[in-house]
Predict the 3D structure of the following.
Amino acid sequence: MDAHRTLEFWFDFGSNYSYLAMLRVEALAAQRDVRVVLKPFLLGPIFKSFGWESSPFVLQAKKGAYTWRDMERQCAKYGLPWNKPSVFPRRALLPMRVAIAAEGQPWLGQFCRRIMHANFVDDREIDDAATVTEVLAALQLAPDAWITLAQEDATKAALRAQSTKAAARGIFGAPTFFVGDEMFWGNDRLEDALEYARGRRRFAPIAPAPD
Amino acid sequence: MDAHRTLEFWFDFGSNYSYLAMLRVEALAAQRDVRVVLKPFLLGPIFKSFGWESSPFVLQAKKGAYTWRDMERQCAKYGLPWNKPSVFPRRALLPMRVAIAAEGQPWLGQFCRRIMHANFVDDREIDDAATVTEVLAALQLAPDAWITLAQEDATKAALRAQSTKAAARGIFGAPTFFVGDEMFWGNDRLEDALEYARGRRRFAPIAPAPD
């Protein structure tokens, strides 16, 4: 598989549109022979750098109201389960740290999908050790070892560094996909990003002026 | 054609994602036997009501930079011509007033596509009488009569009223589509809105928990 056929998927477990992409990405990528690299990062510091104290879906009432209806419809379209979280956006430091500590592990995709499910279907606090422990245990992993690793200074620093890198690469929201340096923002661009990754989307004929 | 099979398309000639939808909507709707009702409204007062002095693509530098690259890619995908306007967002009061005065005219779609083309392909000032005159003349219409009508107090009031109604209906950006009271935001939701209009998108099976 050549290096170009790689999709970086930058996400935050608190982001609802990241939930849609997380539940869809691996199957769609596999169909296209594209490799997925999961890149957890903290969206909060990016929003803070814009002067926002929370998600735009909280700060902008009309956009927020629309977003929850949009999520119902999008989940129905994709056949995904959905329950509006009672807390939004949820803190997710602990599972984010586990995810960055587990970079390259074959079970990372499963772990991420289950954490997303806990937030956006089961309406659970995903920053609690109990939730993360349960998800790790269900995957036949050693929860205590992974949670200990997640809380080491080096892991915390790695997540901070990843978030700084996200900002430096121009990320302003989540999910964001990269294919090389080409950036795609939002679950709505997932298919475009994958087509780009496999070299099927470069140029299209330009139409004449409208009638 | 039953009343449900109608898509309201709310747009501003200054909005780049409205350009994509304007150039696509009538052909896609015709394929699905859905009627399109064009609803020009002013996006500026809505942004001002949020405390924004311009488009988020101007106010948020990173999102703005991304948007122009996204427009290049989206236009390539759809086979639409594109040149980044040298002025953004462009004032469009005069053509908006013509559009609202021309509600129900059979040439309104053509007029709107050509004004969009002037802005997003030819990089012309669309609020100038010269541009609007040229577009109307090319459609074999009487430019002076339509421009006079556009500048009457009743037309100005109709555009203001339409913009107030947009805000009251929860619109926070453009393009926005309505099918009855169901609202869809953004060119990316055009196909969903059309499928909804023809009754093909109501529910989908809910998937089991992730693996």
